Amino acid sequence: MDLKKKIIAAVLSLSLLATPFTNVQAKGADTAKENQVTVQKTVKAEAIQAAEKCKTVITLDFDVQPSPVPSPSQKPVEEQKVVLVSEKGKTVDYVTPYTYTKKSQIAEEKYSVNFATIPSGYNKDVIIPIKVSAKGALVVAAASSEGKEADIYSVYQDKACQKGISIGTDKFAYVPKAGTYYMRIRKNDFEKNSENVYAIVSAFISGNNAELKNNSNVVSASMGTASPIYYKMAVSKTSKLTIKLSSDWSFYATLCNSRKSAITHEEYIYSGVGKVVYVVPKGTYYLKIKAQKETFYASAVFTPVSNAGMTSKSKAGTLKINGSTRNVLVCPGDSTSRGYYMKFTNPKRQKVAIQITTSYTSGKMQFDFYDSGKDSWGKRTLNSGLNKKYEYHVYSTTYNSNSKTLPKGTYYLRFRKLDKKTSGIIGVSIKRK
Description:
Radius of gyration: 31 Å
Keywords: Signal
Number of strands: 31
Protein name: Pre-peptidase C-terminal domain-containing protein
Number of domains: 3
């Protein structure tokens, strides 16, 4: 799924059924008299997205009373103030965008709606403050009651609208920190001889650290590789952690402990893969993500797992020929000298193959093949990879002979880390060939 298109569709391309309101009061600058704007219908806003140009057209349907003509006692109309109200008609000082924190909010088409009333004859640009609670990605759009879209090419860091943050083709302005920003509706965009009402829709995706829970799915905004995001993960028992990122670009991932110190290598993850896998004991961890400036979903699944790979040969986990796959768990804190042992019994001379599937993002493993006399029949290195499959045909001193058979007897597999920062899961089975 293209997150950007989804958000734009949710914010701008679907019908808004805003709560109807009446008697919204737009006060003059220096008078007790009040201009009343009565919306007699449900406000409807509909945006049609042109995917090729990534441009949006918003159509609004209002039934609005015209503002009364100012009396001679009033100050010049250009000194009257633009009145900003919430969707429910409450006067506000600034726009507060709806903040997305999880995927379901986008699917539910949640966003903020505000209305700005511009007095007849107003001849200055309209500056709308927007307050956000964090760094992140801001999306805004505005259109008049006549269906004219405001040309918003930038979000500004200052009220004078001199220091701009450009809005990219993805429709987002990436704001560097919490605070107040400004959008500008240029005076050429509205009719000068009549009252104008603009609808403003807005949404925001935070670039702050977040928490990933089991089966959760959150949405984040990366501010670039120099500004990593840390995802907190509280694990209640030894588990396989599978974290997916639906990003447009490749990214860097590192598993960290509760102090945010790295316990795996920083790995470059291609966007086509978009997934990391680790195995950890009970505890609190952080996944450090360094990504390009973009928005993405992050989802997590914590799967409790048990270890069939024992730390001594005498207690080796048992495999059966043509039996089920059993798992060897490799945790980040385990020493490179620790062995994980498994064994199987070959009841007769026959061809057999060791089948191994690795799922770990960082590091390397090695396994040795032994007989009951403690003689090693060779070693193999297992490189990191997700669902990476190996198959070894075994006989005496060779792993790749298809013509020979394995003698009757008991055999052992010993797995160990070649790199302390290895973490993941290895599935092992023995098959008759």
